[in-house]
């Protein structure tokens, strides 16, 4: 009763009379508000009046603790426990003091006792869980992970809502290699503490490690929603967005990947990996200016980013900036000397420039550093081909195919290479094309044209009442050999008979492209720049355009669209002009040729059915700005005759050089002029000199010229040549036509296959076959001697040859295209009749009827 009387005793505080109970409450309030000294004074007053007041004594201990008088505070708490054993508040105070001095195990003992005596006080359980968690971290850091784990687990037992304990369990399980349990723990942490930014961040880390990028991104975003400036979360989110962008791009969603890369950069503006990947994506989306900016930024921020230099070099090369491109490749190699991609790309550039020795060094290093680098072997093959060494070229292609059996470029380069070293009728050549075509075709699904053909329209076209839709596909519609033969149909089709669609696949466009485009427009044709389309997308476009006859002009040469042809987007498909052999594709129905280059009795086999165009299968449109024909050079050179060839070196086989040497021996003082890309390289020039020296021809009789950049300069080089010597078994085509147009007759050798006989059909169109088409190698030498010995006759031919060319069937574009249109109509009639469209020929105009020479 004394205590009750004491607590009811009134004292004056702030001018007012209050009870001791009120004074204790005031002390507690002041302590809560950080006014420990004032609170202590209040508790001291209470204790002075009622020293047995335990609550005041406990409050005094707390005030002393706040005032950093730990020993005195501890004495107060112990005094309380002596008077009131098991006092949770005093035990909590002692625990707090122990925690302050780092004695966590002691604090845990006090808190365990406090919880035991006050099991309903959640704040004590929370303090115990916190203490257990901190002690667990201390123990784990000291190396005892299992004991740390036990303490964390004990913490969540004591307080199941304490998020940091779950968080630390998540960290521990993650470190122990148990991501599944770690995720469960982090999930518990955010369930109990939804704004626990670090737990969300760590969840993101685990999801990223597990490849669950979308989940990782979501967790990082949650983290930043609660903690916008957490640097590690921003960095991790940028990495996840960058990686996810690559996944999305691989799946085909290029636009979405760009957005992801851009967002990654918005989080980490100096993130060079995202810049690089954004550059790749921009490049694939043909946004080359943006790609260049990204690669330049990446290499500027990280001067050691070899891959960025390399990719920048690729774009610059494609844009024609070869000097800057080489600088980029060399910068990449300087940073990473063993980067095979940069070495390969440098070698490709040097090959384009005719720098044979440099290219050989670069490409050889590429495969030395990465013997499994299939593409580099293919490019080595191209280099050897340009250098005329077809045996090494074929071996390189075969190595590429061993490493990558489905390497399309190497497979097609190998087929092209066979034409240089084997006669066309050789079973190795024929079977090689057929086998490749069957394998390639099997990789594509044919398009279903069942419901795309209107029977009435099919019949109307077969009867000549509606124009046929004819599509031409080519990547060579610029100043390229094919363009000189493609121009005739593109510029002369009758819109009433042929509705023309041109699918231009070349990224490089020049004045010749613009000229062809205008001529197509003049014929009411449709021109589509579609180099950006995949082969599948192009096939869909062809089908949507309703093409009846699709004609590809490339064969197995570079950048072809045989994948599109394999899908058969048109009812009827044709190969023509660009390649001297079969495509091998069962999906291509016909191959256009003539009865000279592929006579009826030919033993060369083709997958396609041969359709022989009357006269010549080609129609040549000369270069409009060609220089005038020069006088016969021999007449001003002491009657010294110059033989020559501007064909590529791959066509100049050892057998060809041997025959040319025989001609030169038979014509004393004669010279040999060869112009080819690799002759910028002294090593290649010396190689040719050695080859001819082995055949008895001294270096002084040989002139070697590199390629001329300008067409006018190239054609002017014919002013040095009296007689053009054709190659075999792969004869010249464009070079022969150019030679003839510049007044230089071409001596060619008749053979058994298409590639061998192109020169024969060209010379026959001019009526010069008796003098310049040889039946044998001996006849070749004899005809060379005969022409060289009659310079006046040769001069007359030279002065009249251009006119003869222009007046011949070889340049009769209107007549050639009329025959072509007749063939298209006859083929369509045949298609209509063979597919059950009755009376396809009924009512057709007699003016379109012609004999269709099919094999």
Q: Measured on Cα atoms, how large is the radius of gyration?
A: 44 Å
Helical run tally: 39
Strand content: 5-15%
Second rung of CATH, namely the architecture of the domain at 633-811: 3-Layer(aba) Sandwich
Per DSSP E runs of 2 or more residues, the count of β-strands stands at: 16
Q: Give me the side-by-side strand order of the main sheet.
A: 5-4-3-6-7-8-9-16
The structure class reads: alpha/beta
What oligomeric state best describes the polypeptide chains here? Answer: single chain
- In CATH terms, the superfamily of the domain at 633-811 is Glycogen Phosphorylase B
Largest sheet: 8 strands, mixed
**CATH class type of the domain at 633-811:** Alpha Beta
Averaging pLDDT over every residue, what do you get? 92
Distance between the termini: 129 Å
CATH fold topology of the domain at 633-811: Rossmann fold
Low-confidence sequence ranges = 1-7, 844-851
Sum up the overall morphology in one term. elongated
Helix proportion of residues, in percent? 55-70%
């Amino acid at each position: 009763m004394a205590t009750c009387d004491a607590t009811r005793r009134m004292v004056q505080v702030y001018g007012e009379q209050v009870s001791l109970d009120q004074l204790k409450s005031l002390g507690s309030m002041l302590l809560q508000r950080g006014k420990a000294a004032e609170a202590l004074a209040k508790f001291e007053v209470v204790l002075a009046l009622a020293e047995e007041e335990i609550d005041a004594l406990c409050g005094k201990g707390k005030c002393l603790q706040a005032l950093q008088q730990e020993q005195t505070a501890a004495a107060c708490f112990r005094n309380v426990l002596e008077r009131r054993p098991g006092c949770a508040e005093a035990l909590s105070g002692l625990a707090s003091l122990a925690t302050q001095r780092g004695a966590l195990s002691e604090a845990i003992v006090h808190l365990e006792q406090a919880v035991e005596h006050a099991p309903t006080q959640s704040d004590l359980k929370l303090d115990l869980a916190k203490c257990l968690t901190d002690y667990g971290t201390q123990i784990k850091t000291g190396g005892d992970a299992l004991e740390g784990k036990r303490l964390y687990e004990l913490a969540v037992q004591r307080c199941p809502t304490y998020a940091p304990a779950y968080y630390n369990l998540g960290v521990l399980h993650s470190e122990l290699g148990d991501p599944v349990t770690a995720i469960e723990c982090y999930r518990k942490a955010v369930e109990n503490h939804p704004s626990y930014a670090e737990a969300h961040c760590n969840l993101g880390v685990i999801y990223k490690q597990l490849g669950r990028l979308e989940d990782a991104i979501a967790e990082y975003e949650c983290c930043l929603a609660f903690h916008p400036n957490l640097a590690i979360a921003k960095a991790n989110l940028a990495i996840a967005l960058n990686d996810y962008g690559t996944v999305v791009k691989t799946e085909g969603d290029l636009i979405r990947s760009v957005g992801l890369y851009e967002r990654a950069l918005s989080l980490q503006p100096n993130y060079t990996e995202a810049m690089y990947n954004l550059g790749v994506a921009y490049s694939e989306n043909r946004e080359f200016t943006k790609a260049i900016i990204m690669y330049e930024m990446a290499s500027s921020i990280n001067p050691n980013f070899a891959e960025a230099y390399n990719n920048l070099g690729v774009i610059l090369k494609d844009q024609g900036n070869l000097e800057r491109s080489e600088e980029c490749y060399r910068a990449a190699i300087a940073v990473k000397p063993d980067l095979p991609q940069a070495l390969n790309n440098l070698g490709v550039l040097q090959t384009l420039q005719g720098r044979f020795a440099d290219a050989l060094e670069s490409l050889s290093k590429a495969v030395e550093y990465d013997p499994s680098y299939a593409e580099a072997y293919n490019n080595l093959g191209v280099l050897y081909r340009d250098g005329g060494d077809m045996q090494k070229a074929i071996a390189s292609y075969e190595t590429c195919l061993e490493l990558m059996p489905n390497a399309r470029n190497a497979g097609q380069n190998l087929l092209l290479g066979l034409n240089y070293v084997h006669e066309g009728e050789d079973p190795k050549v024929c079977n090689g094309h057929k086998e490749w075509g069957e394998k390639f075709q099997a990789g594509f699904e044919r398009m279903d044209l069942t419901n795309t053909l209107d029977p009435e329209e099919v019949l109307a076209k077969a009867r000549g009442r509606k124009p046929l839709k004819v599509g031409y596909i080519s990547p060579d519609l610029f100043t390229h050999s094919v363009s000189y033969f493609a121009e005739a149909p593109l510029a002369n089709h009758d819109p009433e008979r042929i509705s023309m669609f041109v699918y231009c696949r070349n990224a490089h466009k020049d004045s010749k492209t613009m000229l062809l485009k205008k001529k197509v427009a003049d014929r009411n044709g449709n021109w589509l720049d579609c180099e950006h389309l995949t082969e599948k997308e192009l096939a869909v476009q062809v089908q949507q355009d309703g093409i009846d006859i699709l004609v590809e002009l490339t064969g197995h040469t570079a950048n072809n669209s045989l994948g599109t042809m394999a899908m058969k987007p048109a009812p009827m498909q044709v190969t023509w002009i660009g390649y001297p052999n079969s495509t091998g594709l069962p999906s291509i129905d016909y191959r256009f040729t003539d009865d000279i280059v592929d006579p009826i009795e030919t033993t060369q086999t083709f997958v396609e059915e041969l359709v022989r165009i009357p006269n010549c299968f080609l129609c040549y449109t000369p270069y409009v700005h060609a220089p005038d024909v020069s006088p016969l050079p021999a007449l001003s050179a002491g009657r010294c005759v110059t033989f020559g060839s501007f064909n590529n070196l791959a066509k100049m086989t050892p057998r060809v050089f041997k025959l040319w040497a025989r001609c030169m021996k038979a014509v004393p003082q004669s010279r040999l002029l060869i112009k080819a890309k690799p002759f910028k390289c002294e090593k290649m020039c010396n190689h040719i000199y050695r080859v001819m020296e082995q055949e008895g021809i001294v270096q002084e009789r040989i002139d070697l010229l590199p390629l001329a950049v300008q067409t006018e300069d190239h054609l002017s080089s014919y002013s040095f040549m009296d007689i053009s010597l054709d190659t075999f078994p792969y004869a010249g085509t464009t070079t022969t036509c150019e030679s003839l147009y510049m007044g230089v007759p071409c001596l060619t050798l008749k053979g058994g296959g298409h590639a061998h006989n192109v020169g024969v059909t060209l010379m026959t169109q001019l009526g010069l076959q008796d003098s310049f088409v040889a039946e044998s190698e001996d006849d070749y030498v004899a005809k060379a001697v005969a022409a060289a010995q009659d310079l006046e006759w040769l001069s007359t031919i030279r002065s009249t040859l251009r006119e003869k060319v222009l007046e011949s069937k070889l340049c009769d574009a209107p007549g050639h295209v009329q025959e072509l249109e007749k063939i298209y109509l006859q083929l369509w009639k045949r298609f209509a009749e063979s597919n059950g469209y009755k009376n396809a020929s009924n009512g057709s105009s007699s003016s379109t009827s012609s004999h269709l020479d099919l094999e």
